[in-house]
Each structure stands twice: as C-alpha cells, then as structure tokens.
Write a structure and sequence with these properties.
The complex is a heterodimer of chains A (165) and B (378). Chain A is an alpha/beta fold and 165 residues long. Chain A has five helices and seven strands, in the order αβαββααβαβββ. A six-stranded mixed β-sheet of chain A has the order 4-3-5-1-6-7, with helices on both faces. Chain A is globular and about 65 Å long. In chain A, 35% of the residues are buried. Chain B is mostly beta strands and 378 residues long. In chain B, 6% of the residues lie in helices and 52% in strands. Chain B has a 16-stranded antiparallel barrel. Classes of the chains: A alpha/beta (165), B mainly beta (378). The interface between A and B is large, with 44 and 49 residues. β2 of chain A pairs antiparallel with β1 of chain B.
C-alpha cells in the first residue's frame, strides 16, 4: 500500500514534469510569417535579433531618425503567438506586460499600433514610413518590402527557421 | 569634486558617442539614438517647441476582498492603490515622469502620495541620467512592479520589498540622481544603475523629499547580467547609507550606519517564470551593536491559457541587536509565509487573482487568509 507521502511525492514529480515540458520546448513552432517595412526605410534586411530589439523598444528610431512604430496583429492569435515565440521568445501576455512596464518606467519606447488583420497592417506600413509589421506570407510589393521571412515548420519538427531577404 | 563629475560625464558621453551603434547584423546601421521630431521634417510647418512634447497618461488600480480565518477579524472589501502616471517624451533625449498613488490606509481613509517625479536625459540604452524622486534600483521586483498590482502575479508585494508604511524594511524610494543603462556584448546584457540620494530620514517611513538632514548621501549600485536567449537574469546590489539621529523626545536614537546587500535571479522562459530575491540589512554604530534583518522570497508561475497559477515562499527574520530604526520586526522574530493562487486574465488589462496566504510568525503563530483581487490597467 502506498503511503500518503509517496503519493504526494509522485504528484510533485508529475507537476514538475508538466512545468518543464513547455519551458524547454523548442521556440518558434507554428505559423509562418514575413516581416515588412516601408520601402522608404533604408534597412535592407533584418535578423531575428534586430527585429526583437525593435519590438522590445531597445531602439526607438531607424537610421534615418524616423520614429519606429511596431504593428501588432493580436486578433490573429495564431500569427501573433508564432511571431512572439519565434522572434521574441515571449508569450503575447509577456509582450503586453513589457510594453506596459516600459510605459510605467517612463522609458523611451517605440509606438505601438494594433490592427485587425493583414490588410490593415499593410495599409498602416504603407502610410507610415517608420512602421514595421509581421504578416502572413503572401505577395509583398512596393511600397512595402520584406526584411525577414519565417517559413513553415517541416513535419517532424525539423523547421527551416528564419531568413533575411 | 563637481568639476570632476562634469568631466566624467562629458568623457562618458564622448566615449559612447564614438562607439559603433547597433547594427542588428546588417551592413549599415539600422537604428539611430534619436527620433526625428515633427519640426525636423523639412515639409513641416515652422517649429512650435510644444509640438514636440508628448503626454501619455496611464493608470493602475486594484480592488480587493479579504477573509482572514481568525475570530478577531471580519471578512472585508478594500481598495488597493489607484496609481496615476504621466510620461512625456521631449526632444534631445529628455523625458519626464510623474506618478501619484491614491491609496487606502489602515484608518479606512484615503491618502495621496507622490510616488515619483523625475526628469531623465537618455543618450541611448547605454546611458541615462535621472533626477528627482524615483524607485530605488533594488533587485528586480521593486522597479518592475512597484505600485502596479496589475503587473504583479500575486495580489501583493513580498514582505521584504513591502512599502515602509506596510512594515517594509528597504528604502524603496529615493530622492536624488540615478545613472543607469545597459550594454550588450554579444548575447549577454550587462545592466547597471547607480543611485546617489538623500538616503533615509530619521523615521523609517520618511523619504527626504525637500532637503537632506545630514551631509552624507546614500549610494546604491545595482549590476545585473542577462542572457535573453535563455530568459535568465542574475544581479546584485549594494547600498550604503548613514541614517540621521532621531531627536524626537521619547524616541531618541543615535545616528546609524546602514548597509544593504541584495541578490536576485529571474528565469522567464515561455510561459514559465521563476523570480527569487534576497536581502541582508545591517545597521550599527560604534556604540550600538549590529542588527541584522534577512528577507527573501521565491515566486514561480506558469501561464496556462488565461490562467497563471502561482506559488510564493517568503522568509523575514531579525537577529543580533534590536534595530533602533526598523520597528516592524523585533530581534529574534521571524515570519515564514507561503502563498498559492491563480491569476486569471479575464480580458485585456483586467486580471482576477485568487490567493491563499499562510503566515507563521514566531510570536503571533499561524494565520491563514484568502484574498480575491481585481487588478486593471488603462
């Protein structure tokens, strides 16, 4: 017969295993996406780290001194989660908390624009030379340009990762 | 001395200005340190200096219900803190911040506190200088969450970082100057904050807002290292102060030396967060033996959809001689506290928290309580 303490220990081990699974799961699985900017922006390509620095407010202006505005598609949950996980290593809630914390600290921060869908994101970047947005993959034509592309994970988890174009 | 300080600042600015800017891996720099203001646009109308100023208003609030399992206390509803903060970005790297906390007090009244009033000049992420009343850069919790219940996972602050009017032992606010920044050699982030302030007043709840009552300034240095790819941050801080004597009749006390050493660890990866902090507070003079207060907490949580279950363990203990300054804990006393609860993000910027609190005090014994909190931000 199992003692209550043994049962408690097994429960604790099970809980810890449940905790560990998502913590050490591979980042970046999920929807493919592209990152676009306005063609007036002098940046030609961007790596994941540069994009993360933008969305985490490490920089507030592009090289041409244009203020940065990041465009979020929170309505498209799968896309938003995939972008947050793959590029920022965060959950959407953690990203929102980071924006709120930066604002609370009074730190210099990028402007944030929340839009309903891909079309609205494209329209915003076209109208705002300092904007940067992530979109579902599709044709990107001037005055937009793609600076980063995250392709779909291959079945079995051997994802092809991201690339700057 | 003043000239030396000015020369040091100018040297730092020149050195940082000559360092290569962040490129983000591209051939040419992707970013600049300053954003173009409206008047810098060649097509814009003649510059109006006020048009370059922004004003952003934000607020945090929380309302609570508490039930203590004790015959002497009644179930109660209560207000938390209504925190209003104003920020403004001005040209040339300047920014301003004001924060007012409207707080319910133990006398069933409401009081207004000026939490922060600061002006900051920022070169870039590597260097910023702030002047005014600020949050002391102690560990992680104090500056990351401070009075914003919505940002906290649990309903309230850990005992060791509690506000002074709630029995806290650390100087969580300060009036002075702070030099802070972050540098990123490779994947590592090295952050620092150096606070030079008026320091403690004669009373533990007193913040020296208008003038210092002794010549000595408090000095606090926080340094941390972060590996963002792992979601890991480790840091430590050391604070040195000289607490003025208390001359109030009946409460006389000599001046005291104070040292505070702290360490913190934050592991935040995907949905999982683990935060631990510990502090050692020592006070003494030549004639008064040393008192020591040790406080620590570990908080862990896991985001599961809208729910974030959390656990927190805390310890606060006093040893050595009785502190002549901090009266919320007597020497030989200790408090062990365990929290378990869940935070539910009901909607954007609206969180409902349910928390069970078990507290064991060496004199008061065990107390159990439950708390529900609705925290919000807008």
């Amino acid at each position: 017969m199992r003692s209550p303490s043994n049962r408690g220990l097994r429960l604790i081990v099970l809980a810890l295993a449940c905790l560990a699974a998502p913590v050490f799961a591979e980042d970046g699985k999920g929807e493919p996406f592209v990152v676009v900017i306005n063609e007036a922006n002098p940046a030609k390509s961007m790596g994941e780290r540069s994009i993360a620095e933008v969305f985490l407010s490490r920089h507030v202006a592009w090289a041409n001194h244009e203020p940065i505005t990041v465009v979020l598609q929170e309505n498209d949950k799968a896309l938003h989660e995939a972008f947050c996980a793959a590029v920022l290593g965060l959950t959407p809630e953690q990203l929102d908390a980071r924006f709120l914390q930066a604002r609370y600290k009074g730190a210099a921060s990028v402007a944030v624009q929340r839009v309903k869908n891909d079309a609205a994101a494209r329209a915003f970047v076209v109208a705002n030379p300092g904007a940067i947005a992530y979109l579902r993959p599709g044709p990107v034509a001037p005055p937009l340009k793609t600076v980063f592309s995250k392709e779909k994970e291959a079945p079995g988890g051997g994802g092809s990762g991201g690339s700057a174009r | 001395m003043r000239a030396l300080f000015v020369v040091a600042l100018l040297t730092a600015r020149l050195a940082l200005a000559q360092a290569p800017p962040a490129t983000g891996g591209a051939d040419s720099p992707l970013f600049s340190d300053t954003a173009r203001g409206p008047s810098a646009d060649a097509t814009a109308a003649p510059a109006d200096p006020l048009s370059e100023l922004t004003l952003d208003l934000g607020a945090f609030g929380d309302v609570n219900g508490a039930l203590e399992l004790s015959p002497t206390t009644r179930p109660s509803f209560g207000l938390g803190i209504f925190d209003l903060f104003f920020t403004s970005q001005a040209p040339h790297g300047f920014s301003f911040l004001g924060e007012l906390a409207i707080e319910a007090n133990p006398e069933n009244g409401v009081e207004l506190d000026l939490e922060r009033l600061q002006a900051t000049w920022r070169l870039d992420e590597r260097l910023s200088i702030s002047l005014g009343r600020m949050q002391q850069s102690l560990g992680y919790y104090n500056t990351a969450y401070h009075a914003a219940a919505f940002l906290m996972t649990a309903c309230d602050r850990p005992l060791i970082v509690a506000f002074a009017d709630q029995g806290g032992v650390l100087p969580v606010h300060m009036v002075g100057v702070e030099v802070a920044g972050e540098v990123r050699p490779g994947p590592l982030t090295v952050g620092y904050a150096l606070d030079l302030a008026n320091g403690r007043g004669a009373d533990v709840e007193e913040v020296l807002n208008t003038f210092d009552t002794n010549g000595a300034k408090s000095a606090n240095l926080l340094v941390y290292l972060a590996l963002e790819s792992l979601g890991l941050r480790v840091g430590g801080n050391a604070l040195f102060d000289f607490i003025p004597a208390d001359t109030v009749v009946g409460a006389e006390r000599p001046a005291l030396n104070e040292q505070i050493f702290g360490g913190h660890l934050l592991f935040e990866r995907r949905q999982f967060t683990l935060l631990g902090e510990g502090y050692l507070v020592r006070q003494w003079t030549q004639d008064v033996p040393q008192s020591t207060i040790v406080g620590a907490f570990v908080e862990t949580s896991l985001q599961l959809g809208l729910a974030r279950p959390f656990l927190r363990g805390e310890l606060l203990t006093a040893s050595g001689a009785q502190s002549l300054f901090i009266d919320s804990i007597a020497t030989g006393e200790s408090t062990l506290r365990g929290l378990a609860g869940v935070r539910l993000d009901l909607a954007r910027r609206t969180a409902l928290k349910l928390q069970l609190d078990a507290r064991h005090h060496t004199v008061a014994g065990l107390t159990l309580s439950a708390r529900v909190q609705l925290a919000f931000a807008f």
